[in-house]
Design goal:
Elements lengths: L7 H19 L11 H52 L44 H4 L7 H4 L4 H5 L25 E4 L17 H4 L20 E5 L27 E2 L2 E5 L2 E3 L2 E2 L19 E2 L4 E6 L4 E5 L4 H8 L14
Parallel strand pairs: 1-3, 6-7
Antiparallel strand pairs: 1-2, 2-8, 4-5, 8-9
Length: about 350
């Protein structure tokens, strides 16, 4: 019997044709593996989209939590810098003054005060560095001695510092061509001079009998752990660098709400002076769209960060009782703080 010769080339061609036919008819790939139909692919894409939608808020929440923590760390550094200034100078830094706030600088021609087209000459800026505000005087204690020693004011005005900016709100860049600050000192319940707070107007005691000329830790009769030192301030996020509480260099705005805020039960443009979210900035509701704010507040949801006079940092709720917040701001009213109504 003759053996039949097997053609291997034909066999391979035959197998290839079979696999091709299976792929065309049964949905198998050229390698014999299962593939995806269009419906299956759409289902997978839909599931991935749902998972992303579910995870995105969690990711955003984690990022905001990190930014809020960084903001609290900024306040911690600022509070420690103020306390180190106090250790070196035996007093807290003051809030500076406008050149036309008495007592006048000896070189100032005070007859020019409140003159000009808008009767505001000298109302909104210091005469020289001796009248600059607390952010300038704590620079050496924030490891910024080089900026403090700069002889060119313009260089200081145009050097933004990350430690002075809340990352939830904005980046540390120039706004309206000058560096800014997102934190304000506690001026108590008196926006005119801060006399019952910790950050007071420079030399106010020399101009008004009975008011303090400086503030020390000994003057905080309510206890350092029960008195606000510095906290986040409310700003208009749509007009950075333009509203009257954000339109001057952070070191030299004069006695201005750029570097101080207050706490009182008295009603302001949007209610009592308690911490408020940026979305409630007065410029949104009053006739002047560039109006400033005397409110503490922040860009965070539900709360702001605040440093107390002992250097600790706490979260303060926007829903805090107005009287309790007033007590936190006034250093010498000898009223107790119920912390359950604060956080």
């Amino acid at each position: 019997m003759k053996r039949k010769q097997i053609s291997w080339s034909r066999l391979r061609k035959s197998e290839g044709a079979t696999l091709w036919a299976e792929s065309a008819v049964g949905g198998r790939s050229s390698q014999g593996l299962p593939g995806f139909t269009l419906v299956e692919l759409l289902v997978v894409i839909t599931i991935i989209g749902i998972l992303i939608a579910l995870l995105l808020p969690a990711v955003q929440g984690a990022r905001e939590s990190a930014r809020r923590t960084q903001c609290a760390n900024n306040l911690k550094q600022i509070a420690l810098a103020i306390l180190n200034f106090h250790s070196a100078q035996d007093r807290f830094p003051d809030g500076g003054k406008n050149m036309c706030n008495p007592p006048y600088h000896p070189n100032l021609d005070s007859s020019r005060c409140y003159t000009g087209e808008r009767n505001d000459w000298g109302c909104c800026s210091p005469y020289d560095r001796s009248e600059w505000s607390w952010p300038y005087y704590i620079l050496p204690y924030l490891e910024q001695q080089a900026i403090y020693d700069q002889t060119n004011n313009s260089v200081i005005y145009k050097t933004p510092l990350p430690v002075l900016h809340c990352p939830t709100r904005r980046r540390a860049v120039l706004y309206n061509n000058s560096a800014k600050i997102d934190y304000a000192g506690n001026a108590g319940s008196r926006g005119g001079d801060g006399a019952d707070g910790i950050i007071i107007r420079k030399d106010v005691g020399l101009a008004s009998q009975g008011l303090p000329t400086l503030i020390k830790l000994d003057h905080i009769r309510d206890g350092a752990s029960n008195t606000l030192l510095v906290a986040e301030k409310q700003l208009n996020p749509d007009r950075f660098g333009l509203t009257y509480d954000d339109n001057e260099p952070y070191v030299a705005p004069g006695w201005d709400s750029e570097i101080f805020r207050i706490g009182t039960t008295g009603s302001g443009p949007v209610g009592p002076y308690v911490p408020r979210h940026d979305s409630q900035h007065p410029s949104y509701v009053v006739s002047d769209p560039y109006s400033g704010s005397n409110y503490f507040g922040s860009a965070h949801v539900g709360m702001m960060n605040a440093a107390l006079a002992d250097g600790s940092v706490r979260a303060i709720s926007y829903s805090i009782n107005p009287e309790m917040f007033r007590r936190l701001c006034v250093r010498n009213d000898k009223q107790p703080i119920d912390w359950s109504q604060v956080q």
